Amino acid sequence: MGKGKNKYFDVHGPVFWPASILIVIFIAITLIVGEPMEKVFGNIQNGISDYAGWLLVLATNSFLIFCIVIGFSKYGKIRIGGKEAETEFSTGAWFAMLFSAGMGIGIIFWGVAEPMFHYVQPPIDLDAPASRAEQAMTFSFLHWGLHAWGIYALVGLSLAFFAFSKKLPLTIRSVFYPLLKERIHGWIGDVIDVIAVIATLFGLATSLGFGVQQVSSGMNYLFNIPDNVITQVVLIAIITGIATISVVLGIDKGVKFLSELNIRIAAVFLAFIVVVGPTLFILNSYIENIGHYFQNFFFLSFWTEAYQPAESAGWQNSWTVFYWAWWISWSPFVGMFIARVSKGRTVREFVMGVLVVPSLLTFLWMSAFGGSGLWVEMSNPGIISESVMENVSTSLFVLLEQFPLAEIASAIGVILVINFFVTSSDSGSLVIDSITAGGKLDAPVGQRIFWAVSEGAVAAVLLIGGGLGALQTAAITTGLPFTFVLILMMFSLLRGLKNEYAKSIQLDQETDFKKYSERIEKLIAKRKKIHKEQEEESESNKN
Amino acid sequence: MTQLLLFLDLSEMDSSVMQSAYRITKKMKVSKIGLCHYVEIQEHAYSMDSFYNNPDRPIKKLIEEELIDMATEYNLPTDICETIVHDKGGKEDLLHKLNNSDYTLFVLGKKTVHTGTGAFSAKLSRMIEKPILFVTESTKLDLQKILIPTEFSQHSKKAAKLLDEFEGFKPEEVFVLHVFRIPPSYFPFFGKKSDKLIKEIEKKSSKKLDSFCEKYLQGYDVHKELIYSEDKSIAKVVYDFSKTKQIDMVVMGKKGKTDDDEDLIGSVAAKMIQTDKDIPVLLVE
Prior knowledge:
heterodimer; A: mainly alpha; Amino acid/polyamine transporter I; 2 domains; B: alpha/beta; Rossmann fold; ten-stranded mixed sheet; 21% strand; Universal stress protein (chain B); Universal_stress_UspA (chain B); UspA (chain B); Rossmann-like_a/b/a_fold (chain B)
């Protein structure tokens, strides 16, 4: 196992083994040390937010601006995978996969809860409930909108470009080819990939762990199923089982199918809330929220609480900066997945597709669910906010209770949550799989099962033994080092695109067709003559 | 062992390429020779056979026969020759295949007299990521006097190291030339180009040149040259030098220190392979 090609395992040893061993060691330490571990990482995370918050804010803005500039520059016409490359997936399926991998699960939980938090505890003091609601939506848009997708777009575009256009393996290390050249195949590359694997696995496993706690409390709320570790472990087993089947089936049949199914269920769910909820309010507020978001775009994007009095500062650390670190720590995973499904798109299509469409969908979702929550809350203060503050995971179900057909809607909600978990888990396994197989796109089945199951196992172990919080915080703390990786990525991608553009200009130049044609005609005539002579010669020899 | 790849466009230039290849086989150990022709019709989405109305024999086959005949004519060992007639997939596909092939030295003709030929391969050459030798019509590739122009960058180090990589290859003399100038930013501080400043830079450059030769060119008969260029372009200085010293081949890096990523090839290298320079140039990636 582990060496050479094998039917079930085909790993790149220098990444697979260190990553696997480190994961085991990390988990063992977390289980043994227990709570102090969480404190240590919590302190690191606080330190990052306090001292490097400004850097994260600046970097996130730079990534977004970079992507937009690249997309609309002359490099926008470059097609990922070469001029003749064709897309692997229809545009609809592409959006479905982008959205499912990138946000899916988070938005279902936070869609109702986040605007409610900002409404109840406004980041910038406002008195009028209407202004507070508006501000709450705008901040939610900020956290889930263009900036998050800008991070993903940068990583995704870099990876897609170097994997498909430059024909390098689809792993994080390939992005550094213009800077490191052949050294990416050495130990530096291995280290980059090992960090990416660990960050991805812990990110996924801890979200899975926390996620099932939330699903379980939701199910308890709905169906009175006991909310305990056993239920949660069973849920992990179910989710991991479906995810395993999905990754075994591969990206075409498994992941794509589930993502599309997800989007359909989500669309039905969204349509449902728009119809039974405050329809006109949702539509009106969607338009107004977008306007408000763009109007305050620069102010909010660059806001760092610099003039906030010290005693009321700190809001940004626990929200905006947290989100930026969170998206960045997820970016190797989501970026690789986006890259994997984006062959054949032009850079402009890619940037527009990854930034705009998912953002608009997210905004619609936020306006429908979060907006309805605010609408209920504004007329009946406390009705939703109290339960949200108490338990975030029930917020969606509390909201649905306010409208007709609550049971059916809640059941769809649970299915949607589970399905979104499956799509995060299966796409995550494919990504880790690809990195540990040295960048191969279709690693053997055994290996896919291994990573899908590992993810579930890590989540279950942490759930039973404690330490989910510690590891999740640890995963987020990788956000800061990855920020530097992403900054380098901008330079690297720019160099790669410049070079590719120059090549495409060269290749486009017409060759002198007429002169070439004459040469070929001359050659045909010459060869015909030779053949004729040869035939005549062999004829005369026969005679 | 060197593995040669010859770009042949079925024009008059091919004879220079073939002659050079023959000379290379005499000077180096060559284990394989690729005879590569890029079928330009494919860019117009025609099928070659239908275009020329030639149903009895595929044209690809005719071209292959022609290439092998040429190799025989120029006394190349045909037992190690293989033909690569690329008629599908476009330039990008050919480039990708060649860059990932095991060929170690590419040879192509650059026109100085014959117009309308060799232009395509010169374009392709910019995207080849292997050492690539440009020969002209009048090339007599003796490979006795080699010139390495250097500005001590990574690329020129690679150029120097490349000599060792060709098995059996031992030039009689290696000239190493460094052309120096006074960087423009010096002027406001130092006044006009003072002799003292020139001397100072010359001294520094001389030291660098010594250590460059010592490090990368041990075992060769090396001649070191420093030239101060007041306003002549570096390429011109290198070219004039190579003509006066009767250099057989210039070996240099594809890019220099200051070249941007958007230049596939550095400015000096680009000038050296321009059609007006009648000298064989080996560019090193």
